Structure formats: structure tokens, C-alpha cells
Amino acid sequence: MSKKNSEPTPKNTLGMDVSVDCVVFGFDNDTLKVLLIEQKQPDTVHLKTQNAVPGDLVLDNESLDEAAKRILQELTSLKGIYLKQFHAFGDPNRVRGLKDQQWLRTFRVNPERRVLTIGYYSLVKLSEFKPKAASFAGKTYWVDVYNIPSLAFDHNEIVHKALLMLRHELMADHIGFELLPEKFTLSQLQKLYEIILDKKLDKRNFRKNILRTETVTALEEKQQGVLHKPAQLFSKK
Amino acid sequence: MSKKNSEPTPKNTLGMDVSVDCVVFGFDNDTLKVLLIEQKQPDTVHLKTQNAVPGDLVLDNESLDEAAKRILQELTSLKGIYLKQFHAFGDPNRVRGLKDQQWLRTFRVNPERRVLTIGYYSLVKLSEFKPKAASFAGKTYWVDVYNIPSLAFDHNEIVHKALLMLRHELMADHIGFELLPEKFTLSQLQKLYEIILDKKLDKRNFRKNILRTETVTALEEKQQGVLHKPAQLFSKK
DNA sequence: TTTGAAAGTGTATTTAGCACACGAAGTATC
DNA sequence: GATACTTCGTGTGCTAAATACACTTTCAAA
Prior knowledge:
alpha+beta; 2 domains; seven-stranded mixed sheet; two-stranded antiparallel ribbon; 5 helices; 9 strands; 25% strand; DNA-binding
């Protein structure tokens, strides 16, 4: 089984396309949403379009983080978005749907090439989000993370894993405010936590906890235009 | 910037080689060790050999997990080893050392091809470990994780990140016993924790904690052949 | 001025974290 | 068989964090 050192035997593989897929989370005060794109389809083949998570091939001189950043910036005009690599999806059969294969034949120079994808998730402030046409995407839209339609490739699995990682990191690093506007109330933040973690939290204990972590800081300002006692506004520290 | 749907424009990239690198941890009752290999070198070029973490290209029909498992099984005879994907390393310049490039020219059919690697770490029971000749490796040996020499490619970074992930998961999931023999004492387990986390722990509190998590179970047996009060043996539950 | 609706706050109880020291159970030696 | 040596195994009191729980305040609208 072992080879002698004196006989170098170069190893051959076909090579893979590597892509980055971004699970973009947004929050609209009621539901946690994920950004989907309608996959581009050639006019000739008339298939029902599929939905997918935005993603693209990693370019030849690009790092993975750079590719993820580029994908996000092609979809939005936002800068400084929270981005985190969370898993590599490399099953050789992850592309097995008929439509998926047809799509690859249209949009990839090497449609037979195996595709490995690196999953990132990102948190954007829905309030500041303005969709932009991206080279790799058709229309974009937001769907409730707890009610996601059937997606292209293995994207349902990717979204599911992203959510698990998000939950985990929300608890560990308190990154929730990345999904809220610059100024937010603690009630908004609590609701966000409740929706992401999918359980109710006690108001007083939640506030104690958040304030203890010192990830947010109270502003002088108060909420305006609400028909009840206005809440104090906070921002990321 | 956006393209009309009616003009499919296939995207071209050169493709990448994808490899899996395994950071194999072992524990010898005193130090946490990492398994290194001596990189194979052709006799012709007489370079000082470099050390590396074991890894190999992912084969054409292999998933990432399968590749990691194969790499481990080529190095050891062990089955059922704990294995976990922890990060993808994809910087386009991660291979920039002169020796690294020479090595690629010898052992890769496409030495210029960009290489992406998926990092896995694994926990093995040193007591059961028997090194085996592997197709991709020269000699193997263990080094103290806190005293690692300069390695090929970006492997120092890979090991470092693996250690951080291991620490994290040790706390969260109590997987420590994967590094110990089937039967172990709580003192052994505590020492393992202390070395991985790099801090002292209180004996009584440690025991309370471990027993509360119910990840281990007490055996009838006691330690034998020690010149002091024999400790109770435990095993994974 | 009354109503509605969410904001904001305190306390008591339970649970987990932590610091700390000594008798018990074996082996080896004389 | 007494002694010395070494690690094992345990209990308690204190402090900090987690949890459960309900009422008053502040504003806008009618």
C-alpha cells in the first residue's frame, strides 16, 4: 500500500468549482426572514424557475470571505455587513435535481464539474436594505425562515444549518442587533431573540442579561410616534 | 451591471483542487499532542523535509466526510474515530512558500491549480493508536500542541484554529473522553480538561459538573497496579 | 378625563459556581 | 505488622447568577 519516497506519484483529480452561498437573514419586527433569489433561466428552456439562496462561484483570485462580501454587495448596497463562514457542503451528489443540472448546463462553462459550496450567513438591517440587480440573480425576495419553500440544490439544508449556527452564536456573542436598525428598543431586541430562538423570554431577566453583557448602550433619545409610553432607544456599543 | 435573463452567460473559473486536512489530537496523560507527517519528497530534489498535518485531495466521488475518514484510516487502523469539520481555508495565497510550491510540482498533476482545504479535527485514543504507512505521508509523529514547529502551507494556522474549536466543543459537548482509553478515571479526565483548556480546575467542582452532565458512567471496576488508593473507573455512557 | 397599550422596574427563591481540608484506601518498605 | 507515601473521594458554607412573578408609569387618542 505504501509507496517508496523515491517514486513521486502525482495525484490527479478533476478539480471542482467552488462557490459561496450566503444565507442572508433579515428581521422585520415580526418574522425572521431569509433572502432568496429567483434563479435565472434561459428563455429557451421554459422551466418553472427555482428559488435559491444567493451564491456565486469564487473567482480565481478571490478569497472565500471576499467572494461572500462581493455576493452581498451585488445584492445590496450595504457595507460592513455581518458575515460568517459556517460550513462547507461537499457531497458529490448535492446537485442531483433535474432542474439543477439543466441550470448548470446553461450557466456554467463546466456543467459536469463537481461543485463544492462554502456556506456563509449574514445579518442585514432590513430597514436599510434596498435590493439591487445582481449578475447571478433574478428577482429577490424575503421569506419567513420558518416557512421556506423547496429550494434548488441542497439549499434547504444550507438554510437549516445556518439557522442552527445563528442561534448558537446569538447566545454566545449577542450579535442580535446586527439585524435591527441603528437605534432600537430593548423590546424589539427581545422579540428578535424570541423569534430566532423560538421561545418566550422573561422581560425583566432579558433586560438584566443584555445590559450586563454591555453590548448595547442607552441613547438619550426616546421612541416617537407610538401610541403608548415611548421606549428608550439603544444602539450597539 | 445586470444582464437580461435572455442572455445566459456561463461563468468560467479555473477550478480548484479541494483537499481535506485533519488535525488529529491525542493525549498521553501529560500532554495534548497533534499528529504530524513528514511530507514525502522526491529523492532527486534534496530539500529538508517539511512537516505537515495529514491531508489529501478529495477524490472525485468522495464526500468531504468520507475523505476525512479515509485519511484517518490510512494513517491508523482505528474505526469510529471522532471527526468534525471546523473550517474551510480558501485564501488564494495560502500556498506561497517556495518549498510548498516545489512540493506541489512534484505531487500534483496540476501544481498551479488553486487549493482549497477543508479542516477537520479528530480525537483518537493514543493507547489504541498504531501508526500505519499512508500513501500521502512519510513518517508520522506526535508533537505537543503547545510547541508545534513550523509547518508546510498554512498548517500552523489550521492547527491553531482547530485547537480553539476543540476547546469550545469540549466545554459545550463534553467530548473529552474520546481522547482517553475506554476505561478512565475522573482524575485523568480532569487532567485532560486542564491541559486542553490550559488552566487548573477544582477537583470537587469538576467531578460535580461531569457527573451532572451524565456523559460518563461509573463501572464496577477499579484501577489496578497503582501505588496508592485505586480510583474508580468510568466509561463513556 | 378616561382608555388603551406597551414601558419600565424590584424582590424573593432556586440553582449553579466556587473555595476550601481531611480521612480513606491502597502499595511499598522496613 | 507498623509506618510512610500517594492519590482518591467527599461536604459545607458562601457568593453569584438564573428564574419566577405583578404593578405602576407614560404617552396618544378618543
